[in-house]
Write a structure and sequence with these properties.
- It contains 14 helices and ten strands.
- It is α+β, with helices and mostly antiparallel strands.
- It has one domain: Orthogonal Bundle (Cytochrome p450), CATH 1.10.630.
- Strand 1, helix 1 and strand 2 form a beta-alpha-beta unit.
- The radius of gyration is 21 Å and the shape is globular.
- The termini are far apart.
């Protein structure tokens, strides 16, 4: 089987909600640069090996497709969200303009700054557990804990009102839409989200606080070369989506992994010092990082995995598959709570790696610490095979996580 003669249809199908598609292992072994057919009918190159995925993600020449690129579309005509079918170019997709935008933001997401947020995160986590315990002995852990925690954190960071979290959730889903909403519904949601964020930026100009948006506005005025209002609006939207949707999904997936094999949870209860390595191992072990991987648009020819890909090719980098590559990880099929080092690619690599990875890691760690301490008897309320995967979005996750104690 060669790349040229093997085509797969995405998203790949797995046996269970937490299992990787069996096809991934075959592709890594026999066809690391395959051709993938997307729900739109368009085709793209599909990478599954660690070395290839990391190399392309780290290559500063290539970035996510923009609306101006003639890239493969993920969604069928009439559907798709902003993140699914090409990001707007309010912020340069690559080059010095993109790196300058990252530098403006990255100083607010350093490990040192995020650690200052940790006590507040822990307080919020305990408050959410208090509410869960007050309601009885069972809950949907995603709805009651996994979703609200990162929403409160990112809203506090941005200076957005957390009581609008249900609206944020809908807007985020539309941003990441593949087939859940129509194109018209997505357009309306995007317009609403843009208007909301524009008003929030205006409010921060009138009455600045100690939040990130206010700080960015003040710095822009002082330096004379900061972000425009349009860039501030886009930045606020991007951070709100990235800051809660993916982390909320990851908290639920991490807990599902640990509770689906009770010995993992018991090991953590016996040795809470494993919390940090467990959070990273959950990121590596996650079979549902996304249905289509990280996308890159090639504006010039590149050779990767022994195959020459021409300019104009859209490439899908499957980080979930790369994170289970035996050439990069010892016994990758095992969830090893003490795995270290753990060079997983859940946050990408290189100049486009996730800006908020320190924040996400800390939220995962705080979630684990709090739940271990407060609800040690936590267990799944349904068989793992009955957990339902999120459908119709470009991010992967579970629609709910029923638990009891």
């Amino acid at each position: 089987m060669t790349s040229q003669e093997h085509t797969v249809r995405l998203p790949l199908v797995s046996d269970g909600p937490l299992d990787p598609p069996q096809e991934q292992a075959r592709l890594r072994e026999q066809c690391p640069v395959a051709t993938a057919v997307l729900p739109s009918g368009d085709t793209a190159a599909y990478l599954t090996r660690y070395a290839d995925v990391r190399a392309l993600l780290a290559d500063k020449r290539f970035a996510r497709p923009t609306a101006e690129d003639d890239a493969a579309r993920v969604a069928p005509p009439g559907g798709g969200g902003i993140a699914a079918d090409g990001a707007p170019t309010v912020i340069p997709a690559k080059g010095e303009g993109h790196q300058r935008w990252r530098r403006l933001l990255s100083r607010y997401f350093t490990v040192k700054r995020v650690n200052l947020l940790r006590p507040g995160m822990a307080g919020t986590a305990h408050l959410l557990v208090d509410r869960m315990l007050a309601r009885g002995s069972s809950a949907d852990l995603k709805a009651a804990f996994g979703f609200p925690l990162p929403v409160y954190v990112i809203c506090d960071l941005l200076g957005a009102p957390a009581e609008d979290r249900d609206r944020f959730s809908h807007w985020s889903d539309s941003f990441l839409n593949v087939s859940r909403y129509t194109g018209e519904q997505t357009a309306v949601a995007h317009e609403e989200f843009t208007s909301y964020m524009a008003e929030l930026v205006s409010e921060k100009r009138r009455r600045p606080g100690e939040d990130l948006l206010s700080t960015l506005i003040a710095e822009s005025a002082a330096e004379g070369e900061g972000m425009s209002d349009e860039q501030l609006v886009f930045t606020g939207m991007a951070l709100l989506v990235a800051g809660h949707e993916t982390t909320a999904n990851m908290i639920a997936k991490m807990m599902a992994m640990l509770l689906s094999d009770r010995s993992r949870w018991e090991r953590l209860l016996a040795d809470p010092s494993l919390v940090r390595t467990t959070a990273d191992e959950a990121l590596r072990f996650d079979a549902n990082l996304g249905a289509f991987g990280a996308r890159r648009y090639l504006d010039q020819e590149v050779e990767i995995g022994g195959r020459t890909l021409p300019a104009g090719t859209t490439v899908l980098c499957d980080m979930s598959s790369a994170n289970r590559d035996a050439t990069a990880f010892d016994k990758p099929e095992l969830m090893d709570l003490s795995r270290s080092p753990n060079p997983h690619l859940a946050f990408g690599a290189g100049p486009h790696s996730c800006l908020g990875q320190s924040l996400a890691r800390t939220e995962l760690q705080v979630s684990l610490e709090t739940l271990l301490q407060r609800i040690p008897a936590l267990e799944l309320a349904v068989p793992v095979g009955e957990l339902e995967k999120l459908e119709g979005l470009s991010v992967g996750g579970l629609s709910a996580l029923p638990v009891r104690w």
